[in-house]
């Protein structure tokens, strides 16, 4: 698409620099939040933690919220936490195991009929093994990749075509800091999250390249959050993020079309530093701060 010439190179670089300046400006003066009232938001893993709170927040903003989870108990809990009549009338829970692609396509069609076209897709469901590489059971490695990465392909296949047709929509990937940094006890988890980050970045480029710029992407990479998913981990320097705080920041990033959200803020700096440091220096920095040992006390959800 388009031919490479000296002129195309310099025009491209000119706009690249313009957007850099715009981004610096927007760091100080954030762009306005978009109005999402009346929009349809689909959230996977809506029966617990971040997904549950995101469901409530988007319902408060006047969205119709479609919640998917394997846990029907979790979904009913989410519904019961929606305080008023208006919110509960806009809550549409569906039991769906996102690792079963046939089920994903089937439930996606049902959603289309019952509620309508999904405007905002939030791939949030996730699981973690939390063991050293050689202690990870094969089944858990496969499951982790399936839930944290491969399921995103199925939900995207189901809902992205509609967004592209309307040149309007938003794909949100709840990845993790583990999608940018590796550490002991997270080999399968980090692999799945790096993959989710890569998928979203490549998709962002495809959308820009095809000039479907009405469809936005946001990838979220938080450090540990206190939802219970990482129960037991010890974080001597950086405290766990409060889930309400994480959810507020995620909603804000979506409403402002932010392409990438790292939490807490210092992670932007650490991510940049990692690109400059030798591997051993990066490792020793992580070790000195106690981060490398954080998974040693992991218990996770004791279901
Ligand atoms: N909690 C943290 O410290 C933390 C940090 C960074 C990133 N994240 C990511 O944020 C996301 C949400 O995490 P959370 O802390 O809210 O976790 P959580 O365990 O509270 O919630 C995850 C939800 O996903 C659902 N789920 C699991 N497998 C599923 C499947 N096959 N089909 C449908 N639903 C399924 C679970 O039933 C659960 O309701 C995850 O992707 C996680 O990796 C969490
Ligand atoms: C965000 O994207 C939507 C299109 O999806 C657009 O209408 C809106 O103006 C954008 N808002 C910001 C703050 O960029
Ligand atoms: C990592 O840090 C711990 C202290 O928390 C220290 O005992 C250990 O020797 C360090 N490991 C390496 C490889 O430097």
UniProtKB/TrEMBL annotation:
Transmembrane segments: 6-29
Stored Pfam families: adh_short
Keywords, ordered alphabetically: Membrane, NAD, Oxidoreductase, Transmembrane, Transmembrane helix
Xref: InterPro entries: NAD(P)-bd_dom_sf, SDR_fam
Entry GO terms, CC: lipid droplet
GO molecular-function terms, A-Z: oxidoreductase activity, acting on the CH-OH group of donors, NAD or NADP as acceptor
Family: Belongs to the short-chain dehydrogenases/reductases (SDR) family.
UniProt-recorded name of the protein: Epidermal retinol dehydrogenase 2
Species, as recorded: Phallusia mammillata
């Amino acid at each position: 698409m388009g031919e490479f010439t000296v002129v195309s190179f310099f025009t491209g670089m000119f706009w690249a620099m313009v957007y850099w300046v715009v981004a610096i400006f927007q760091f100080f003066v954030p762009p306005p939040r978009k109005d999402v009232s009346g929009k349809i938001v689909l959230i996977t893993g809506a029966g617990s933690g971040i997904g549950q709170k995101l469901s409530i927040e988007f319902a408060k903003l006047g969205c119709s919220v479609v919640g998917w989870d394997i846990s029907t108990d979790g979904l009913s809990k989410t519904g019961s936490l929606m305080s008023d009549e208006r919110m509960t009338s806009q809550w549409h829970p569906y039991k769906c195991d996102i690792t079963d692609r046939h089920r994903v396509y089937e439930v996606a069609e049902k959603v289309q009929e019952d509620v309508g076209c999904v405007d905002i897709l939030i791939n949030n469901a996730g699981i973690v093994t939390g063991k050293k590489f050689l202690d990870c059971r094969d089944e858990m490695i496969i499951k982790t990749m399936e839930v944290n990465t491969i399921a995103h392909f199925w939900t995207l296949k189901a809902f992205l075509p509609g967004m592209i047709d309307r040149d309007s929509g938003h794909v949100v990937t709840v990845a993790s800091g583990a999608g940018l940094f590796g550490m002991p006890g997270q080999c399968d988890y980090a692999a799945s999250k790096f993959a989710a980050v890569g998928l979203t970045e490549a998709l962002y480029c495809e959308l820009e390249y095809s000039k479907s710029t009405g469809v936005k992407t946001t990838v979220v990479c938080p450090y540990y959050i206190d939802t219970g998913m990482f129960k037991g981990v010890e974080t001597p320097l950086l405290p766990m993020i409060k889930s309400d705080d994480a959810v507020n920041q995620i909603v804000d990033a979506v409403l402002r079309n932010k392409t990438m959200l790292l939490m807490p803020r210092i992670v932007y700096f650490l991510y940049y530093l990692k690109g400059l440091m030798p591997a051993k220096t990066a490792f020793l920095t992580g070790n000195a701060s106690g981060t490398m040992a954080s998974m040693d006390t992991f218990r996770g959800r004791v279901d």
